[in-house]
Amino acid sequence: MKNKGLMKGLVALTTSVVLSATFVSDVQALSFPTTYTNHKKSLKGGTLRVGYVSDSAFKGVFANELQSDSPTADVAGFGWQDLFKVDKNYRYVKGGLADVSFDRKEKTATVKIGKNVNWSDGHPVEAKDFTYTYEVIANKQTDSASYNDQVKDIEGMEEYHNGQADHISGVEEKDNKTVVLHYKKMTPDMYFSGSGYIVDVVEPYHYLKDVPFDQLASSDKVQKHPLFYGPWTMKNIVKGESIEWVPNKYYGGPKPKLDKITVELVATNKAVSALKAHKYDILLKESPGVYNKIKNLKDYKVLGEKALTYTYLGFKVGHADKDGNSVMDRKTPVRDRTLRQAMAYAMNTEQLDKKLYHGIRYRGNTLIPDALGKWNDHRQKGYPLNLKKANNLLDKAGYKMQKDGYRTLPDGKKFTLRFLYDGDALVARNYMEQWKKIGVKVKLKDDRIQNFNTFTEELLNDGKGWDLWMSGWDITGAPTHEAKSYATSSPYNFAHFTTKENTALIDSLSSEKAFDQDYQLKQFYKWQAYMNKEAYVVPRDFEYYTYPVSKKVKGYTLDPEKSYWVWSNVSLTK
Amino acid sequence: MWKTILRRLLVMIPEIILLSILIFILAKLMPGDPFTGMVTPQTSAAQIEQLRIKAGVYDPWYIQYYHWIVKMFHGDLGISYQFKTPVGTLIASRMWNTLWLSLITMILSYLLAIPLGLTAGRYENTKLDNFIMFYTFVAYAIPAFVFYLLGVWLFGYKLGWFPTSGSVDVDVTGGLSYLLSRLKHMILPAILMALISVTSVVQYLRSEVIDNKNQDYVKTARAKGVPEKQIFKRHIFRNSLLPIAAFLGYSITGLLGGSIFVEQIFNYPGMGLLFMDSIMNRDYSVITALVLLYGILTLIGSLLSDIILSIVDPRVRIE
């Protein structure tokens, strides 16, 4: 299952690193292997001990459509295997537990479930499970947050959601193992995992059919005794703390090589000691602070994958009208592109990433993370630190430097920008210092760092009294999905910028012509270049997720092309 | 006395109602709501809004309060937005974890604090007293989380004597092995909490012993030739323990409070961690239920303390 992204409140670090103000030109982003090759002979069976770094308990709602809790999704990953295999660009390919094919003319997606794919009670995974999963998503009684615009594109979905139909007409069970999904329209997004059009994980209809929809999420069948069709099934669970996994003997893929996997939550401040004491064979969700302290442990190899996540600096230039469409009408100095570009050039993100995040975060070059492979335009430079260029831009545009070290607007008026931020005070202070160096006065909104909830409310409710903010998104493998966040009608276009060119470019990404991948890619590159040039939203950094893996582990990989059967292939050696 | 207890119990009813209104309003005043964290480009803003409307987030507070209180009188504390579990069930499951941990901590704490306090008071200004005082000052000054982390590092990882996470091993099922595993998981956090929480009791006892040593009844006993050992055992210690007994009511009800620090460091799913989680995620139904529970426990704790004191000290009467 793809990790559903929660808006990233930037993690406050307890470090007290003091940043030097000098430009560091030799900062190199780290690179990590995605696979550790262990040549030793595998032992028969054994227990893999997995630690999961988290400071809060996992909530334990083991129904993918009803949970919104990242730890639950991650600790359930041993049983919740995606039904479909993807390539390195997250595009569906054949060879998974199920395959999907598309018919643009008929506006259908056909899912064929492998004949040996079974639930952990031995019952086969069937077409009815697909239908049921869409019903769970759409039925108002389940309160599922997964009912989104992509799901609504299935014929009859809205009628079912509104109670006008007792089944979803667009989900057709052709036979026990084949489902045909009928769409109102086809888009290029559909071909990518995580786009939301096709569910990657299904629920067991035969097992859950007697549970009323309004009691599904709280039922014991979902929370205490869930079924899985992945390689592992839950034997024991201590709610919120740990899970013991044993092989699903009815699994449709390669038989797991281990006897058991235990996954246990470990608090962030204990993760280093736990690893040094060899308490775990693999540590998931390691933080940059942990990485820095264990990177040289001789018994572990640190693997890394580029994360589907990015952070950014945004400038608020408008507001949302009553229909939710962005209108670019705010009277604010950040309406001026030159000012935005100068501020972007003044950001010392590379330096900050090296000092604070030990290179695990690195400066982003566009608003499409390089984790999305070819969709990121590698030719784009983004905004590397260049104070000279920033000053030149402002000088030329008529922002005159005053004796107090701050510039005035081209019309001679003094100005102060307000910065909305909910992360580490050190990060905020660093960037405000950088902007001071080019004579731009920036103060925190309300002169303080906001808490996550206040911050999010300000963004969502079109708050007043701030000009710029920093935040981030966790994203999926569907790149156009990401770009659409910046459309005029998107509720997530917090900058509220809207231009004809942006609208045309975003529309072109999902147009009929965009089914041609070369055309779509070209348009994507144009959009990234356009966004960089306009700088309404400036990419800040990308990130690696790192995983310390004991050198006794064999067969573990993060490579998206090879990791589909990973939890079957993992074994232990001496 | 019974009349007074009954009167105190009756007075608690308006106090609890007032408390519930205050808690409810304060919870609603917090920025954000349980759905704030669900906002992503992959979710539909319209669907999140529908969920908000269905949950009554936009209803006036008194309407929401009315619904809540009516449900509560029917034994329904609502459903946790995060855990999708009835709040009563959720709290009950966490309550047992916290109760056992707190109980062991309290027993260890008193077992340690009483002899230390009495010894320090009896041997006032000796090396032993100075050593005990030094320990209490260090325990008071050291930040609890640092102490817990040091304990985990030393006894959990370096020496490997105790488990460092959770409340029980995942692979034990029922019976004696389950109980032993539970106990094993609680010992280290309980010892660490006990070691750091003895300060006030030790200091209080020491002062009481020193005060009592100079009381007239002690002088009289000495004048009558009662052996020094007997004076301390039968007179001074017994009287010095009275104020400690008065704390007992609060301690009993405090057992359910939980400790945020220790529960977070040990990933021990108790009341403290639940409270923290529910605040961070704006899980209103859990927040209001927990704060109300804490409020009620405090009121009961106060009453219990008065009752205990009146039982152990004949000079005190509840009127």
From TrEMBL, chain A:
Q: Which UniProt keywords apply?
A: Signal, Transport
What GO MF terms are annotated? peptide transmembrane transporter activity
* PANTHER family in alphabetical order: OLIGOPEPTIDE-BINDING PROTEIN APPA, PERIPLASMIC BINDING COMPONENT OF ABC TRANSPORTER
Where in the sequence is the signal peptide annotated? 1-20
Q: Which species is listed as the source?
A: Ligilactobacillus apodemi DSM 16634 = JCM 16172
User: What family is this?
Assistant: Belongs to the bacterial solute-binding protein 5 family.
GO CC annotations, alphabetized? ATP-binding cassette (ABC) transporter complex; periplasmic space
Q: What is this protein called?
A: ABC-type oligopeptide transport system, periplasmic component
A single GO BP term for this record reads: peptide transport
Automatic annotation (TrEMBL), chain B:
Family, as annotated: Belongs to the binding-protein-dependent transport system permease family.
In what residue span(s) does the ABC transmembrane type-1 domain sit? 95-305
**Bilayer disposition of the protein:** Multi-pass membrane protein
Q: Any keyword ATP-binding?
A: no
Taxonomic lineage is: Bacteria, Bacillati, Bacillota, Bacilli, Lactobacillales
Please list the GO biological process terms of this entry. Answer: transmembrane transport
Protein name from the UniProt record: Oligopeptide transport system permease
Protein keywords? Cell membrane, Membrane, Transmembrane, Transmembrane helix, Transport
Tell me where in or outside the cell this protein is found.
Cell membrane
Where does the chain cross the membrane? 9-30, 99-120, 132-155, 186-205, 241-266, 286-312
GO CC terms in record: plasma membrane
